[in-house]
Amino acid sequence: MAHSRFHTARIVLALALGLFAAGCATDPEAPDDPLEPMNRFFFDFNQRLDRHAALPAASFYTSAVPRPVRGTVHNVLNNLGGPVTAVNDVLQLEFENAGVAASRFVINTTIGVAGIFDIATDWGLPERHRDFGETLGVYGVPPGPYLVLPFRGPSAVRDLAGSYVDGYFTPLRYARYTGRNYVGLVRSSLGSIDNRSANIITYRDIERASVDYYATMRAYYLQRRARQVEEKSVQTAELPDF
User: Between vectors from CA 148 to CA 163 and to CA 130, what angle results, nearest 5°?
Assistant: First the structure.
């Protein structure tokens, strides 16, 4: 098992380094997208999947599941990301923010009953998200080539590698119980549906206003990530995996 994980890590690292090198010769004024033909192919694939599966599922979820229940699901999913934020705050030397993130996780997991209730926000501990892709960006690592992969939203080499590292900070990774793999799949599926259902109108409006939807989403993603690394206010929707 350990050898398998090590082998997977080597593959991810090799992919990241290779794609990063491929983007080094691009025009600095243009988007770093040397894999655009492949990206457009997978973008179209993901859009078809969204129209025929993710969007109908999100629409049904919104109409069939009461708002309080959807809020509960959202709170639980957010709470599971607390340790990821805390660890990345430490890596960025943001110790006060790390303390807030850790406190939020402990309070909401215990008093908030596994994150069902967001008690920490009511106690003056605001929600905040940080990931390892942002941590790398804080230390000057560029995003590298833009990427669109099947069943995933927009990404970049740095952020793809960062998401793999973040997987080691999630609490469910270290829990041992029957059906562990199924729980991970359910969590991922619920996260995508929760995210997509919150942005049905937003994405519809972006697509309708776009001459080139692919280019618009690429610019949207890269600008949003740059602002997150700079810790500036981001008044935009999340980009769901689909």
Answer: 30
